[in-house]
UniProtKB/TrEMBL annotation:
It comes from the Bacteria. The lineage of its organism: Bacteria, Bacillati, Actinomycetota, Actinomycetes, Kitasatosporales. Coiled coil: none annotated. The chain crosses the membrane at residues 37-58, 99-118, 124-145, 166-184, 190-210, 231-253, 259-278, 299-318, 330-351, 358-377, 451-472. This is MFS transporter. Keywords: Antibiotic resistance, Membrane, Transmembrane, Transmembrane helix, Transport. It is found in: Cell membrane.
């Protein structure tokens, strides 16, 4: 690992300087750059939740059960988990603008396939394509911000990360409501079709306002002394990673009925992946860099643990409100609104802090407190307590999102921010799938008070572990530093 990069690194080219001429409250990270990045970044989270209120109608039309329609959720998670680091690698190598634009085109295609799908199988294909297409935006955005940071000679402001987190959190929060409105007004196919205009807007903004990749490569050569487009894509490494991760996630999907035979191919594929990455001159996963960059590995671990607890509440708490507390789905959604609101507010608050350790410590602390409150809930708990319980988990959701996002940006190698950001999202998706499996294991056929308390106990233990990891991470005490390689 080389020395930290100087915050005032040169790199403003004439063409780039001209592009930002004129008044701007934040030169270099203004509205033209951020608008397409924010629009692209909301496509993945909104599609993750928008489908929820259309599943029943889809099942009725295709005459399939809940176990089958659940694949519409899992298929996108699997595709996104594999796609995020893979497309991040592409963004680092061939340029973030190209990857961002290609992802938007894939989302348009997925929207059309889903809106016109004559069979349920084709609908699942649409969700896979949608997962891959929407997975391009976040790592490409992080790589683009890194390129812009090179150009203007200073790090991206924390407020920029706050906006990206807010776009993701807010879109995920409104997803179920928007999906229900679209399904009730124009039918469930509108949930797929709405991606077409949204992706076209993101594509138009990218083509009009994002700087060309040749400009970002030229700036990279001037500041870092290397061309990020000159390396190998390592397609075999990407394929091995995708295969190993897919096997692992299929195992995690059913912890209540473990598919033990999947562990053997997972172990074999992982061993082959490690062997290949260690011998490849420019590997897809730089395992040697990760071994040296302990801070980045700990950030991935923290992010995955935090979202494992958060998703347990997001999915498990709402189910308990309906089945144990007797609320209608609409009223359960209203009870969950403070969680979404607190997450949005705290993502902005976290973006305004200068350090990283403090917000992450507060996030872990609130996960501990929230888990303790869940242990006290029962089927007749007053509404006010239910609202507070949800809000307690929204606070760490917002703080962990912006804090770990800023940590990855600072800790990742200068020429690998896209892939590093993708791996961060992969850790989050692993947390989501593990959470859904844990809920099924602890709830069984129906959500009960005892099941909720078991989830709260498990969440509390994980939150204490997360708090200990955060407090013990020395790299967060002085603030992480950017590394070149």
């Amino acid at each position: 690992m080389s020395a930290p990069e100087a915050p005032g690194a040169p790199g403003r080219t004439g063409a780039a300087a001209g592009r930002t001429a004129g008044p701007s409250p934040d030169p270099g990270f203004g509205a033209r750059l951020m608008t397409p990045l924010l629009l692209g970044s909301l496509l993945n989270p909104i599609n993750s939740t928008m489908i929820a209120t259309a599943l029943v109608a889809i099942g009725q039309d295709f005459r399939v059960g809940a176990a089958d329609t659940a694949w519409l959720i899992s298929a996108m998670y699997l595709a996104s988990a594999v796609g995020q680091p893979s497309l991040g690698r592409l963004a680092d190598r061939i340029g973030p603008r190209r990857v961002f634009a290609a992802g938007a085109v894939a989302v348009v295609a997925a929207g059309l396939i889903g809106a016109l799908a004559p069979t349920f199988t084709l609908l699942i294909v649409s969700r896979v394509v949608l997962g891959v297409g929407t997975a391009a935006a976040y790592p490409a955005a992080m790589a683009m911000l890194r390129a812009e940071s090179r150009r203007v000679g200073r790090p991206a402001p924390r407020a920029v990360f706050g906006r990206i987190s807010l776009a993701a959190l807010a879109s995920a929060a409104v997803g179920p409501t928007l999906g229900g409105l679209l399904a009730a007004t124009w039918g469930w196919r509108a949930v797929f079709a709405v991606n077409v205009p949204l992706a076209l807007l993101a594509l138009a903004g990218a083509l009009a306002w994002l700087p060309p990749d040749r400009e970002t490569r030229r700036t990279a050569r001037a500041t870092d002394g290397a061309d990020p487009a000159g390396g190998s894509l390592d397609p075999l490494g990407i394929a091995l990673f995708a295969a190993a991760l897919t096997c692992a996630m299929f195992f995690l999907l059913r912890l209540d009925a473990p598919r033990w035979p999947l562990l053997a191919p997972t172990a074999v594929l992982t061993a082959v992946l490690v062997w290949w990455q260690l011998r490849h001159p420019e590997p897809f996963l730089d395992l040697r860099m990760l071994a040296r960059n302990r801070a980045l590995v700990l950030t991935y671990l923290r992010h995955g643990l935090a979202y494992l607890v958060i998703y347990c509440v997001l999915y498990g708490y709402s189910q308990w409100l309906e089945q144990a507390h007797g609320l209608a789905s609409f009223h359960a959604g209203l009870i969950m609104l403070p969680m979404s609101g607190a997450a949005a507010v705290c993502s902005l608050a976290g973006a305004r802090t200068k350090g990283i350790r403090a917000p992450l410590t507060v996030a872990a602390g609130f996960l501990v407190v929230g888990s303790a409150v869940l242990l006290l809930l029962h089927g007749s708990s007053p509404v006010a307590v239910l609202l507070v319980a949800g809000a307690l988990f929204g606070i760490p959701q917002g703080l962990a999102s912006t804090g770990n996002q800023a940590a990855v940006y600072a800790q990742a190698p200068a020429d690998g921010v896209g892939a590093a950001a993708g791996l961060q999202r992969t850790a989050q998706y692993l947390g989501a799938i593990s959470a859904s499996s844990l809920i099924g294991l602890l709830y069984g056929q129906r959500a009960t008070d005892s099941g909720l308390h078991a989830i709260a106990l498990a969440g509390g233990v994980l939150a204490v572990l997360l708090l200990a990891l955060t407090l013990a991470d020395r790299s967060l005490r002085t603030g992480p530093t950017r590394t070149r390689t």
